[in-house]
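Table S2 (continued). Query chain:
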Amino acid sequence: MREQQIEPDIHVFVGETYHSNSTAFVRGDEVLLVDGMASRADAEELRERIKVGLGKQVRFIIATHYFSDHLAALKLFPRAEIVAHRNYLHTFSTERHRTEEEEAHFVEPTMLVSDALSMKWGRYTLEIFHNPGHTMSSLSIEVPEADLLMAGDNVVGNIAYFSYSTPDMALHALRRLKRRGRSRLISSHQGVRDSEALAHAMFYLDSLKTNVRAARQSGGEGDTVLRIPIDSCLRPELKASPYEELYHRRNLESVVDRRLFLSE
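Corresponding output:
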């Protein structure tokens, strides 16, 4: 497990499985976590890092969305209050790529957010807001005192993944995040990055739409759209990672199956 300490009291832990992460905000002897890893092994190491390494107890866990690759730690902190969007179950029940181990991660949340919630935690204010994009129940978090945005999976690397929503919803979610004007970004995978990733993901969506329409205008559909390379949708200075390529392929499948980008 990799750890980034971005402030004296903010630690980001990145697991081995899918590079899913969990962010720990420390207040006295307690911790507030955002998201909870993708595998039991990563979750157990997270518990060890917090209870033994930091000497803290977890009081709250905020789930940016209820996909199982972010829920593995929920059962390991049974005294923690779990915060999720009111429609969390819709996300979990529509997930298509869940493993048997991930199926076992589910724990019912104890606190539900409809639109927004402001939490004071130590010297930080966590502004939690409904931001549907990756899923209908995605939550994003702004932490002004840390110049930080937590985007969940509304950003996947430098792209957006809309298999569970629409490209327009994904774009609106990115715009809402960008308007917050923060320089540091944490999505649900990897570690802390520059918020320029939001602009990269918006560029991807616009370029993908252009490429899809060009493929259709040339008389192509189906296989032609599925062959659109991710490099043609990224800014020239960027190189796609393997997991970005995976989610790009899934985006293309959604475009074909659901006939997306047919209207302005």
